[in-house]
Amino acid sequence: MRLAGNLGAGRIQLDKVIPAIKKANEGAKDPMFAIFGGEPLQIPRLVLERLWGFGLETYKKNGIQTNGELIDDDFIRLFVKYRVQVGISIDGPWPLNAARSNKDGTEKTLKAIEKVRAAGIWPALHVILSKYNARGERLAELIKWIKSLEGVITEVRFHLLEVDTYKAHEVSITSEENQAAYLALSKVETQTVLQPFKDMTKLLQGLPFEKKVTDDPKDTSKDVGCTWNGCDPYTTPAVQGVDGDGTLSNCGRTNKDGVAYRKSSHGGSERVLTLYNTVYEAGGCKGCRYFFACKGHCPGEAIGGDWRNRSTHCRTYFNTFQSIEDRVGTIHPDKIKEYERQVLDGVSAPGSHGDSHGDTDHSDRTFIRVPVVVKK
Q: How confident is the model over 312-342, as pLDDT tens digits?
């Protein structure tokens, strides 16, 4: 989107953003919103405080995803005052974090984690695997660091890199290296929740497919992340985005051609159904043992940037599922068929509240490709 000149709406227009947040939260099981970027702590503090004041009054909590380098004592005060759940993006101590920042910036983030925790807030971490933290001795260092954070953070989410720009290509690792890293990380013993491995275990045990026994929004025992839910790229049900001008948008991971398509008025299952019936050699998932759990994974990391294909990281997920299954037990073939039927019937949508915007001014499911002028 940046290369296409389609990134951002300028300043945040609170008179349009706040009503859009309310609309986006209609029907949500656990309504709230999180501010992310880019780097959201570059937003003027008065604007952040207005947003968080609204969030605290309306939803009793707030959220933010930041690299942490700008967190100071005043931001800590605001986090506490407005009950802000803090997610911090860091790929490890220096030099493991070199894909994101320099040594000084990394040290600032590490100190920010300590400050946030000292203030009584339990941060969660987002870690992307790259050549700096997921090869050989660096992977061993990453695992050692993760173990050292037990009792400091609540959760670590490991992400495979989206290789969709030349800069991402420069720091990427091979499919074989991704597979080795995920297999090693999935076996780390710690009390900290490590994702996506917890979700993968839930899926293999069939938990998201069993009927819920409670409507308690705090009960997440059967929920899994959006990437396992057969996401429709034209509604991205788990992400109701609100741009700075109040426009409702989808998850940006799917905008590989630089265009943020309008959110459709209703979801579709075209991708899941197509992948289920398309052979592996043509980019599909036909006959895959773990389709019921994976569903082709995130459309934002599809082969060739084309959401009609399965994930480019298919082999990593398959081998990790296989490894976890070897440890937690084998699923009966009849159960696999039962879960597959739920997926194909559109019954299974764990972890998201679905699209709830049928009464708003969105497009229908007519897909219009908009020509893009790429800027150097």
A: 999 999 999 999 999 988 888 899 999 998 8
DSSP conformation class of 244: T
What is the spatial distance between Cα 22 and Cα 6, in angstroms, rounded to a whole number? 25
- C-alpha 314: how far from its chain's center? 17
For residues 311 and 296, the answer to whether their CB atoms sit within 8 Å is: yes
Q: What is the rounded distance in angstroms from the CA atom of residue 176 to the CA atom of residue 14?
A: 46
Burial class (CB in 10 A: 0-12, 13-18, 19+), 34: middle
Domain extent listing, the chain: 32-198, 230-353
Q: Half-sphere exposure (CA, 13 Å, Cβ side) for 197?
A: 24
β-strand partners of 195: 157
Fold of 32-198: TIM Barrel (3.20.20)
Alpha helices in 119-265 (DSSP H): 136-148, 166-171, 175-185, 197-204
